[in-house]
Task: inverse folding
């Protein structure tokens, strides 16, 4: 058994996807063209960032059918299957923030910084403010400052000063706030948190196997979703879980695993 | 000393106030930034682009137009380009628009920020309808206006003799030669920038600007009396006579009246 198979798989997926996008622009590959804002798979299936489309809507743009269908495709996929998987499996910024977080663990920053001086609800405010500004100015507000956009566009079309955005996120996550960008600020992550709560792929925690080593909580970028660890066997149902599977592979006791959402059990509990 | 515990309600109010304050500050900085970047009005857009205001709301910044352009004309604004981030633009002096008849950049646009209708006549793609900008001649630095024979821009123009025509004029200085002055007709110019690209001067003496920037506007109250269709606008016009202090006197008297402009 490979120790970090999900991590390796994720990196292969992230880098592979970016390579496909890059190849489409540089060498005319046709598998997937565009970028993470809007793309076309094999020239037929459109896929658009639903959060960007929401901003366009707020800005008063006439939404074209391609974009609308594309947003629906993405919305359906993530709300039914992937959850917030966009963040950990697709978004290239994830590699930057994971690197910062890795260094934090290596240098044991938690001994110095114990409390996180911010609330994870910040990202939902950012969504609200972005929609208000989009409405007021008639532009897609977040798309004009999005470091995520800068980075993935940078990889495909050339980076420019985009490296500064990468550096800012890296150092912010490293020195200011643990998982600061993805866990507190990024409205794209916030948006997928909202729609991801319904998805079917869920991490499942088994209390009987758990030895309370807490490695999972330490490695989890959204550790609040693992509140049940040591308390009760349960599925991680929070939309904020990115399905990155780091908790699964750091667990030496096999107490965490992927599972399909338990719809029947839940109904029984409710009734 | 008595330590007072802070009530839950007070904590809540304080936290709410802090959150609102932070949000307002963030929103303000954000808005100011947007105001700044979206005001860069010298950006040239791909053919068929909606008016800048609608374009900024509609473009999803996917770069498919950039990928479709066979000449690498279009670029996506990067940080540091001083253009609205992620939006497509081109710089004609660098690479102009080569006016492909199949306009590959427009139909691929998923958001219709590049509107096929704006570059079609009778449902047929027609690149000559593009209005990316309009060329402007700097007559002081155009060598053709100096009397040196140059028709680089005129020859480069895909709408030869329409978008740019030559104005022949006798050169009084030499008495032997003629000026061949390039004149742009904004009714035909698409703003492709092939002229700017071809211009032989060190910095182009003919260059493309967005139409809103380059063109003037006369206002409704000027009427071309020699133009039958324009003259029609007078048909239902009414005359308004405004009486001011000055119009009480005869015009000549008004002109002669120095009215305190001179010292006695």
Result:
């Amino acid at each position: 058994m490979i120790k970090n198979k999900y991590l390796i798989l994720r990196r292969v997926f992230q880098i592979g996807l970016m390579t496909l996008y890059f190849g489409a622009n540089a060498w005319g590959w046709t598998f997937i063209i565009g970028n993470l804002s809007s793309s076309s798979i094999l020239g037929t299936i459109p896929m658009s960032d639903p959060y960007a489309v929401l901003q366009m809507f707020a800005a008063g743009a006439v939404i074209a059918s391609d974009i609308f269908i594309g947003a629906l495709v993405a919305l359906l996929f993530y709300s039914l299957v992937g959850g917030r998987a966009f963040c950990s499996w697709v978004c290239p910024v994830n590699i930057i923030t994971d690197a910062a977080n890795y260094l934090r663990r290596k240098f044991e920053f938690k001994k110095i910084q114990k409390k996180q001086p911010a609330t994870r609800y910040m990202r939902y405010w950012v969504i609200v403010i972005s929609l208000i500004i989009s409405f007021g100015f008639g532009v897609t507000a977040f798309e004009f400052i999005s470091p995520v956009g800068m980075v993935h566009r940078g990889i495909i079309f050339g980076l420019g000063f985009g490296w500064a955005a990468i550096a800012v996120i890296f150092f912010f996550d490293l020195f200011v706030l643990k998982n600061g960008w993805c866990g507190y600020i990024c409205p794209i992550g916030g948006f997928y948190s909202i729609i991801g709560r319904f998805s079917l792929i869920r991490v499942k925690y088994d209390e009987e196997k758990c030895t309370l080593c807490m490695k999972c909580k330490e490695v989890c970028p959204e550790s609040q979703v693992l509140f049940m660890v040591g308390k009760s066997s349960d599925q991680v149902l929070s939309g904020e879980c990115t399905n990155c599977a780091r908790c699964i592979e750091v667990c030496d006791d096999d107490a965490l695993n992927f599972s399909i959402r338990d719809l029947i059990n839940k109904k029984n509990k409710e009734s | 000393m008595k330590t007072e515990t802070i009530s839950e309600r007070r904590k809540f109010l304080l936290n709410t106030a802090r959150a609102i304050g932070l949000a307002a500050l963030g929103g303000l900085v954000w808005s100011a930034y947007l105001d700044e970047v979206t005001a860069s009005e010298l950006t040239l857009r791909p053919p068929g682009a909606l008016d800048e205001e609608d374009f900024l709301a509609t473009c999803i910044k996917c770069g498919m137009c950039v990928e479709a352009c066979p000449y690498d004309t279009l670029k996506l604004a990067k940080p540091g380009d001083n253009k609205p981030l992620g939006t497509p633009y081109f710089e004609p002096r660098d690479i102009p628009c080569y006016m492909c008849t199949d306009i590959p950049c427009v139909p691929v646009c998923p958001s219709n920020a590049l509107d096929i209708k704006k570059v079609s006549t009778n449902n047929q793609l027609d690149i000559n309808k593009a209005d990316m900008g309009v060329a402007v001649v700097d007559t002081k630095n155009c060598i053709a206006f100096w009397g040196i024979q140059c028709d680089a821009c005129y020859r480069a123009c895909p709408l030869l003799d329409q978008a740019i025509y030559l104005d022949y004029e006798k050169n009084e200085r030499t008495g032997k030669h003629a000026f061949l002055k390039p004149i742009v007709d904004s009714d035909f110019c698409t703003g492709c920038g092939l002229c700017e690209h071809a211009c032989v001067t060190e910095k182009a003496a003919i260059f493309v600007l967005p139409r809103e920037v380059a063109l003037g506007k006369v206002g409704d109250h000027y009427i071309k009396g020699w133009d039958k269709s324009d003259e029609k606008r007078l048909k239902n016009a009414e005359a308004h006579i405004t009486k001011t202090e000055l119009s009480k006197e005869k015009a000549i008297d008004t002109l002669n009246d120095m009215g305190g402009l001179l010292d006695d």
Notes: DSSP finds 13 helices and six strands in chain A.
